[in-house]
Every structure is written in C-alpha cells, then in structure tokens.
UniProtKB/TrEMBL annotation:
It holds the Pfam family LacI. This is LacI family DNA-binding transcriptional regulator. The keyword DNA-binding applies. SUPFAM superfamilies: lambda repressor-like DNA-binding domains (SSF47413), Periplasmic binding protein-like I (SSF53822). Keywords: DNA-binding, Transcription, Transcription regulation. The lineage of its organism: Bacteria, Pseudomonadati, Pseudomonadota, Gammaproteobacteria, Oceanospirillales. GO terms for molecular function: DNA binding. It comes from Vreelandella zhaodongensis (Halomonas zhaodongensis). Signal peptide: none annotated. Residues 14-68 form the HTH lacI-type domain. It comes from the Bacteria. InterPro entries: HTH_LacI (IPR000843), LacI/GalR-like_sensor (IPR046335), Lambda_DNA-bd_dom_sf (IPR010982), Peripla_BP_I (IPR028082).
C-alpha cells in the first residue's frame, strides 16, 4: 500500500474511488460488486475484495440511500435470539440476501408487541429495502407504520388471515392436530398438552388448540388437559409441570409438548420416577432440535421447515424489491418424525 493511501486512511474515510484505484477498476465496477457481487467476474471480484480488505473500506449505506431512497438493509424481528429454530431461519436468509449485497438488521421482541413495535420503528428510520416479521400478531401502531412505509413486508413462521403483505410459513393449528392424532393412533386415550408462555406465544397457542380439536374429533367426549409452564427455564418448568400432571391426573397416557425442550425436561423427570416412555406415557414435541434423536428413548417431534422458510423469505424479499410477481401466501408445510418416545411395542409389532 502506498504511503499516500496509508496517510489518507489514517486521516480520512476511505472512499469507493480509493478502492477502485487500488483494484485498477472503475468506481462503477466497485459499486456493482458491492450491490450485485454475482454480476462481477470472479477475477475482478477478488481484486476488489482484496482492495477493500487492504484499505478497510466500509460502504456508506446512507449515501446510497439518498440516491435510491432505500438502504441495502433488511430489517428482521424474531421473538427470541437464543431459540435455535429462528437462528437457522435467519442464517439461511443472511446467506441468500448477503450474496445479493443485502445485510440484515436483527432485533428480537421477546414475544412482546411493544418490543416488536420499537424495533420496527428503529429499523424503518434506516430506510430498509424490506421488513421481515415473525408471525401475524402485531400492535396497531406497528401495522400502521408498515402500511404507511411503502416497504415490502414478509411475515414468516405462520399462516393465517389479515396479512400485511406476504406470508411464508405453515399452519401451527395443523401441527397440534397432527401431534395429538399421532398419539391417539399410537393408542393413547387421555392426552395432555404442556406448553410455555401460552399467553403471549400465539403460535404455541395455535398448536394447543389444534391438539385439543384432535382430541375432541377423535376421542369424542375426552378433553385434553392443558398446562402452561409460564416463563423461566423450560426443562425445569417441564419437570415441575410433568410432576403436577401425573399427580393430579395419574391416568394420563399421552402428552403433546409445545417444544422439544419441554419434552426433554419431562422425559428426564419420567426416568427419575421410573415411568416408562412410551409404554406408560407417550410423548411428542415440536422443533426437531439437535438433541431430539439422541435421547433415550429418542423424542418424537414435528420438524418445522426452518431453513426452507429462510430461503423462501429471502427469495420473496428479492422478488418484491425487484417488483416481480410474488405469491402472497407460501405454505412450506412440516414433517412428522415418529420416534421411540411415542411408538409403543404394540404399534411397532404391527408395522410393515
């Protein structure tokens, strides 16, 4: 690096022209590489990236926004930063959108409408190219801001009515119905639902309602017991909920859980008490977390399409930004994964 460039770097902001000069290309080529890297040849891309790395160049997104009225930023709000389910979706979105020169601004709502509203207000101040929200439940002010922003909006991880723009997800009601039906088909007659934060987690609430409907439809007058673990560490909460359930309703023989962490906590408590899973109580969770097929017995669960949602959201965003036709409702579906925690010996003996 020349002394002149070194001096400039120490006293002024490095410009696109500096990058172009060092890479021996035009400034417009550098701009194209930053906006649409796939449209620049591999050889030129390597030279430009090398110059960027050498100079420590950081694009001025706001300068581009003044000309285009939009930054190359996508605002994303998820309910939780620590939930691996959402992390997989966001990671896939970043890979696809990043390849097209977009960057994610990530916020989390902690399942609170007011927190989502604050994040949306902040992100809109950056003139994003699009906004991605989780679910369909938003405050009136959030809906007003987004409707007035003229920014493409994708709501993910849920299907339902009254969308803001584009929906990408699956039916959580159908998930709950499928969970309970699976236990009933395995021979369960008295089913409970154990969830957490049902007062604020609309998707878990829908799974609970779906399981209750399956019990009504398939078992007639029998009713599912519902336990809300509330807030706190899920495995510990599930252990307490399981203890309360079998104490108050010792005839329960099947449990639907709103997520796999709750299943794990209950499974551990059952083993401590000498309760056989699935012979005494069958269990099924939701999420297909990494540990789900490693437990003894392995946990039956529902696999949500985490990566598929991320890819579909990214492609929907790109199509909306480019003004291309886009489906308004994309149902990705889900997969039932029957494993040892729900497959009783009597069922396995009749399997083909």
């Amino acid at each position: 690096m020349s002394n002149k460039l070194r001096a400039r770097r120490s006293t002024q902001r490095v410009t696109m022209n500096d990058v172009a000069k060092l890479a021996d290309v035009s400034a417009s080529t550098v701009s194209l590489y930053l906006r649409k890297p796939d449209e620049v040849s591999t050889q030129l891309g390597k030279r430009i990236q090398s110059a960027i790395d050498t100079l420590g160049y950081v694009p001025n997104l706001m300068a581009g926004a003044l000309a285009a009225a939009r930054t190359r930023v996508i605002g994303v709000v998820v309910p939780s930063m620590v939930n691996a389910i959402f992390a997989s979706t966001v990671n896939t979105m970043q890979k696809t959108l990043g390849a097209q020169g977009y960057q994610l601004l990530l916020g989390h709502s902690d399942y609170e409408e007011s927190e989502e509203e604050a994040a949306v207000r902040t992100f809109l101040s950056w003139s994003p190219s699009a906004m991605v929200l989780t679910g369909l439940t938003h405050s009136r002010e959030t809906r007003r801001m987004l409707n007035n922003s003229n920014v493409p909006v994708v709501e993910m991880w849920e299907l339902g009515s009254n969308p803001l723009d584009t929906l990408v997800g699956f039916s959580h009601h159908d998930v709950g119905y499928t969970q309970a039906r699976h236990l009933i088909e395995a021979g369960c007659q008295r089913i409970a639902f154990i969830g957490t934060r049902l007062s604020v987690d609309e998707r878990a609430k829908q799974r609970c309602r779906g399981s209750e409907k399956a019990v009504r439809d398939l078992l007639g007058s029998q009713h599912a017991r519902v336990i809300d673990c509330g807030f706190g560490r899920m495995a510990e909460a599930a252990s307490r909920a399981f203890t309360d359930l079998i104490t108050s309703h010792p005839n329960i023989d099947g449990i639907v859980f709103s997520n796999d962490m709750l299943s794990l906590g209950a499974l551990s408590e059952a083993q401590r008490r000498g309760i056989r899973v699935p012979d005494d109580i069958a269990m099924i969770g939701f999420g297909d977390m990494d540990f789900s097929d490693c437990t003894l017995p392995s946990l039956s669960t529902i696999r949500p399409p985490r990566e598929e949602i991320g890819e579909a959201v990214a492609q929907s965003v790109l199509r909306r930004i480019k003004g291309l036709p886009q489906e308004k409702r994309i149902d990705i579906g889900f997969e039932l994964l029957p494993r040892q925690s729900s497959l009783r010996a009597s069922i396995l003996s009749h399997a083909p």
